[in-house]
Design a protein that fits this description.
The chain has helices at about 450-520, 525-540, 545-569, and strands at about 5-10, 30, 40, 55, 60-65, 80, 85-90, 100-105, 110, 125-130, 135, 150, 155-160, 175, 180-185, 195-200, 205, 220-225, 230, 245, 250-255, 270, 295, 300-305, 315-320, 325, 340-345, 350, 365-370, 375, 390, 395-400, 415, 420-425, 445. It is an alpha/beta fold. The strands form 3 sheets. It has an 18-stranded parallel sheet, with no helix packed on it. Strands 3-5-7-9-11-13-15-17-19-21 form a 10-stranded parallel sheet, with no helix packed on it. The protein is elongated and about 160 Å long.
């Protein structure tokens, strides 16, 4: 075994650790143990195998640190330790493996800074350190590594400028995503004419996009998202005709949405959202027939969606939400039959929901038309979207009943029809959704809302209450008028009675007085000869009889008055 040169044990179910006796294999040139379940530390004795040219321990469970004496392996060309649990810094001595061409330490728990000794790795073509915890600025000496083709330092904590990584004319891929790099993009990056993949997303980069990047005619992937870039997108990028992915989202770009984007025939993903772009959605985008994802949300775009959107027959995702778009939703969108996500919310779209949307039977992730000015009824054709998981039509001006066909959407996890003018009974399959899904539609009923019979009963009760109130008001009014009329009549009767009473009393008193005078004094003609006769007659009447006569006279008057009063009443 001492003469063993190649040890291939990859893609098995080997467990345990590498025995320290490995160091006795002085002739060992290649050791491939990848895709096993080995664990423990990498024994330092392996550095005694000075003939080693390739070590591949990818996809195991090794822990501990990279052996400090790894620099003794002067002939090492490949060091593949990716996807393990290694920790600690990269050994200083690694820079002395001057024949190293491929260094893969990604997907570990390594930390610390890159050593200045890296400048000695002049043969290095590929270095992947992603998904670790490296930090600090990059050594300036990295700019001397002229043979670098692939650099992937993504998902670490590096900071400072990216300038040291732009020294190679041979770069084909540079990925620095999700770090803390500062400054601008060096224009000298354009000398790497074979660069086809440039990813600088999720950093703190600033400034404009250098126009020189237009010289990268082999570029297929450009991702500058989630930075602080400003200015307009340079028209020179239109020469990058091989671009398949253009991601400039979440920056501070301004100006009009470039119409030259329509000339990028190979474009499959265009992501310009969360910027300050103005103007209309370019109709020229209809020429990008291979476009799979179009995301322009959260800008200041205005005008209508161009009819040419229907020419994007390969489109899977269309996101235009949070803009100032207006007009109607073009029915030509039905030609995008491969759409599985459609977001048009938070704009100013008007008119009805096109019934043609019901032909987008591949819609699955979401159909979001919320917070617009859409009117009319919900088209029953939406019931054909059987794969749909989320439907949001809230905050519009929709009216009418919810189509029973929507009850067939059994894949729905989220439904929001709130704040419209909908009415009638909900499909029974909607009973499992929360009340908030239907709030702001006062005339909707059925589970989970109140039953439609209760709603009808309440309506009848409201009508009955109104009728009762009207009746009460009528009764009170009639009673008041009647009472006032009766009081008036009684006052009239009382006044007439008083007048009659006073009149009769006066006449009765006059007659009585005349009678009394006649009885006492007699007529003027008789008074002279009959005076003594009268007096004698009065003297003969007893006192009681005189009193009765007087009482009878008074009673007679009273009876006459009472008779008159009865007649008046």
């Amino acid at each position: 075994m001492s003469n063993l040169e190649n040890l291939y044990l990859f893609d098995n179910m080997i467990t345990g650790s590498v025995p320290v006796e490995i160091g006795k294999l002085q002739s060992l040139s290649t050791i491939y143990l990848y895709d096993n379940q080995m664990s423990g530390i990498i024994p330092i004795e392996i550095t005694n195998c000075t003939s080693l040219t390739a070590i591949d321990f990818f996809g195991n469970h090794f822990s501990g640190s990279v052996p400090e004496a790894v620099g003794k392996l002067k002939n090492l060309v490949l060091l593949q330790l990716r996807q393990n649990y290694l920790s600690g810094p990269i050994p200083h001595s690694l820079g002395y493996c001057k024949k190293m061409q491929q260094l893969a330490l990604a997907d570990n728990k390594l930390s610390g800074v890159l050593q200045a000794t890296f400048r000695f790795l002049s043969e290095l073509s590929t270095i992947t350190l992603y998904n670790n915890s490296f930090e600090g600025p990059l050594p300036e000496s990295l700019s001397f590594l002229r043979n670098l083709k692939i650099i992937n330092f993504s998902h670490n904590k590096f900071n400072g400028t990216i300038f040291p990584l732009t020294g190679s004319n041979s770069l084909t891929a540079l990925d620095l995503t999700n770090n803390s790099f500062l400054g601008s993009i060096p224009s000298r990056l354009a000398v790497s004419r074979n660069l086809h993949r440039l990813r600088l997303a999720n950093n703190h980069l600033t400034g404009n996009i250098p126009p020189e990047l237009g010289q990268l005619t082999e570029l297929t992937f450009l991702d500058l998202s989630f930075n602080h870039f400003t200015g307009e997108v340079p028209s020179q990028l239109s020469t990058c005709q091989k671009l398949q992915h253009l991601l400039l989202n979440n920056n501070q770009f301004t100006g009009r949405m470039p119409s030259w984007l329509g000339s990028l025939q190979e474009l499959g993903e265009l992501h310009l959202s969360s910027n300050n772009f103005l103007g209309q959605v370019p109709a020229e985008l209809g020429n990008c027939s291979r476009l799979l994802k179009l995301s322009l949300h959260t800008n200041n775009l205005s005008g209508k969606i161009p009819q040419e959107i229907g020419e994007l027959t390969s489109l899977n995702i269309l996101n235009l939400q949070r803009n100032n778009l207006s007009g109607s939703i073009p029915p030509t969108i039905q030609q995008c039959k491969k759409l599985y996500e459609l977001r048009l919310s938070e704009n100013f779209f008007t008119g009805p929901i096109p019934s043609e949307l019901g032909r987008l039977t591949e819609l699955q992730v979401i159909l979001d038309l919320s917070r617009n000015l859409l009117s009319g009824e919900i088209p029953s054709s939406l019931g054909n979207l059987l794969k749909l998981e989320r439907l949001n039509l809230s905050f519009n001006r929709l009216k009418g009943e919810v189509p029973s066909s929507l009850g067939k959407l059994t894949s729905l996890d989220m439904l929001n029809l709130s704040n419209n003018h909908l009415q009638g009974e909900l499909p029974s399959t909607f009973s499992g959704f929360p009340l908030s899904s239907f709030s702001g539609n006062d005339k909707l009923c059925g589970p989970p809302l109140s039953s439609c019979m209760d709603s009808t009963g309440h309506e009848k009760n409201r009508l009955s209450s109104t009728a009762v109130i009207c009746i009460i008001v009528a009764i009170v009014f009639t009673s008041t008028v009647t009472c006032l009329l009766m009081i008036y009549i009684m006052l009239r009767i009382w006044c007439n009675w008083r007048k009659a009473l006073i009149s009769n009393s006066s006449e009765g008193a006059g007659i009585e007085q005349k009678r009394e005078e006649k009885r006492i004094y007699g007529d003027e003609k008789k008074r002279k000869g009959e005076y003594w006769r009268v007096m004698n007659s009065m003297a003969l009447i007893p006192p009681q009889t005189h009193e009765r006569i007087s009482s009878s006279c008074i009673f007679h008057v009273k009876m006459d008055t009472k008779t008159m009063e009865n007649n008046l009443v």
